[in-house]
Amino acid sequence: MSVLRMPRAVYDALRVHGEETYPHECCGALLGEPTAQGWRVATAARAGNTRTDSAHNRYQIAPVELVKIEREARRQGLEIAGFYHSHPDHPALWSATDFAEAHWLGCCYVITEVAQGKAAVTNSFLLAGATEEDKRFEPQTIQVEEARTESRPA
Asked: Looking at the 3D structure of the chain, how many domains does it have?
């Protein structure tokens, strides 16, 4: 099983984003770099949910916004490691729609259940496979890394 590593601040921020947009789904991108064990996320980029027909249970990032996010990632020496979104009052498990609309092979898809306005469970799934025809979601471990503090002599 691969591991998705991210700083506590990024983990907390994507969960707060879900609470802020409740009862609609939030969405955004995770920026990071690949490692032998999986992705290491450095930051997250919030995105607007352009789904107006059913924003309570669907999300979409506008292509122009996604291009801006990708350019910013490159500027920082990072890549799009994956995407995140929330499931208002629904488990943090991928849906048939999530799977059908997932196309970034090798990237992570992080889902946070937001129960009655409060972030609950957060899970990650790696979109594995070599082609669209054999893609599949594989569960990932999320490793939240606490901020390192430097000790200074007194």
From this structure: 1
| C-alpha distances out from residue 13 to 6, 9, 46, 101, Å | 11, 6, 9, 24
Residue 151 placed within a domain: no
Any idea how long the chain is? 154
Q: What is the pTM of this model?
A: 0.93
Q: Look up the CATH number of the domain holding residue 94.
A: 3.40.140.10
CA 121-124-125 angle, 5° bins: 140
Tokens coding 48:
């607007």
* Catalytic annotation, residues: 25
Is the model's pLDDT at 150 over the cut of 70?
no
**Rounded CA separation 9/6 (Å):** 8
pLDDT one-digit tens code per residue, 70-84: 999 999 999 999 999
Please say whether the beta carbons of 2 and 109 come within 8 A: no
pLDDT of residue 148: 61
Whether 83 is covered by a domain: the verdict is yes
Query: Residue 40 belongs to what domain range?
Result: 3-137
